[in-house]
């Protein structure tokens, strides 16, 4: 007897495919959240990311005299930002330095280069400056850092907004058409980022 073809993938396979697809686009979403710019015409034009919003705001705390960062000056330049943190937030453990991979490497190299009380070349380095966490972010611009309260709770000053809390998990996986061997993944999402209080953020950069 002829058998009907069941073209429905097992849920385990569907989940694996969607997970791989999400990982493939994670780099894009990360860069958009931080570096989005509505004045451009490329794929990062859809909203202004955190960096542009903080840099453009008249209310955010700007560190004067930003320069090209190096292992020789990174401590002094980060100290400027630390000293610019509003006094009420200076000892808040959720205030963090957000830096690029390149800047983080300079920070670690500066620790290695210390004559005393440094780390050796086999160590990754200590991801803290003056007690504040130093967080490395992929595709973050060089010679720039932001100090802000960043966390996964309501106290965070960096926010991602969506039109539905289920937007990032509601995904459709189906055949492209009835007689097709191709499949499509559909995800409807309206998103944006915002800063809760610009007065509580510190920006270092050109």
Instruction: Give me the strand/helix succession.
Output: HHEHEHEEEEEEEE
Distance between the termini: 73 Å
DSSP, total strands = 10
Give the helix tally. Answer: 4
Q: What kind of sheet is the major sheet?
A: 6 strands, mixed
- How are the strands ordered across the major sheet? 1-10-5-2-4-3
> Percent of residues in helical segments?
25-40%
What does this 3D model show about the protein?
- The chain is an alpha+beta fold and about 210 residues long.
- The chain has 4 helices and 10 strands.
- It has helices spanning about 10-35, 50-55, 75-85, 100-115, and strands spanning about 60, 95-100, 130, 130-135, 145-150, 160, 170-175, 185, 190-195, 200-205.
- The strands form 3 sheets. A 6-stranded mixed beta sheet has the order 1-10-5-2-4-3. A two-stranded antiparallel sheet has the order 6-9.
- A hairpin with a 2-residue loop joins β3 and β4.
- The longest helix has 25 residues, at about 10-35.
- The protein is globular.
- The model has no long low-confidence stretch (mean pLDDT about 85).
Record the SSE blueprint:
Layout: H1 11-35, H2 50-56, E1 61-62, H3 74-84, E2 95-100, H4 101-113, E3 128-129, E4 132-137, E5 145-149, E6 158-162, E7 172-175, E8 183-186, E9 191-195, E10 202-204
Parallel strand pairs: 1-10, 2-4
Antiparallel strand pairs: 2-5, 3-4, 5-10, 6-9, 7-8
